[in-house]
Amino acid sequence: MAGAITVFASKETAPRPKHITEPKFVQWLLIGIALLFLGFVVLLPLVSVFVEAFRKGVGLYVQGLSDPDMVAALKLTLIVAAIAVPLNTVFGVAAAWAISKFQFKGKNLLITLIDLPFAVSPVIAGMIYVLLFGAQGYFGSWLDEQGIQIIFAVPGIVLATIFVTVPFVARELIPLMQAQGVQQEEAAASLGAKGGSIFWRVTLPNIKWGLLYGIILCNARAMGEFGAVSVVSGHIRGQTNTLPLHVEILYNEYQFSASFAVASLLVMLAVITLIVKGIVEWKSGSSHEART
């Protein structure tokens, strides 16, 4: 035991090999490039959003956020996220469970289909739903006869949002569950546990932080989606405009203060998401350290 501890300690304190130890100036140069790039590409635009939002005073800022159309857009954004995120969570867990725990024909095809929304432009995704459910689409006539409207209505926005956010939960869980293997589930099954009990008592506790991380990313994309939603929404004020679409309309109408005010709200939602994401990462790291 003492020998093992000594070897472990020596590995922890051993200096890095010279061939992978960069000079200090190289390290600072790389750090500086990274900070400069992020500051120019990410931080500066975000700061400018708030500067423009408050340029003409707090009164116009509050007025832009209290506009009835903005409130309606916020409500619709939250409703769409509240529908799309749970559905993608259920699908993501089921898909990750199937891919990581079982061997079956078509597994690679399933993985490819999960990744497909990453490869397809969101605008194309919106056009696909117009082609299927629009007035001249494959199912448009039948839907019109039934009095069902999907395109230029909330259902179309939900479908488009679900499409673009499909991969996030599944892609977060698949490598995690594959790395964990099936030993714990098999041990629980050998002791007489059933499938549901195994999931709730064995699998879910092991994936909870990864699952929460995927849900956070999925929710952030759902609230910020523009391209696919723009195609299927119809841009109807107070009815089918989400927050990103409302920002575009205000900007095109030269209502710059109001548009930047609404944009700042989206930025704040993104910052809150990042804070929650950081907390989840910290909790996940602390939980992993406790287990090891």
What does this structure look like?
- This protein is mostly helical and 292 residues long.
- Helix content is 80%, strand content 0%.
- The protein has 14 helices and no strands.
- The longest helix is centred in the C-terminal third of the chain and has 36 residues, at 256-291.
- The radius of gyration is 24 Å and the shape is globular.
Short synopsis of the structure:
The chain has helices at 2-13, 24-53, 58-66, 68-101, 107-119, 122-133, 140-145, 154-165, 167-180, 183-190, 195-224, 227-233, 243-252, 256-291. It is mainly alpha-helical. α13 (243-252) runs antiparallel to α14 (256-291).
Quickly list its features.
about 290 residues; mainly alpha; 14 helices; about 80% helix
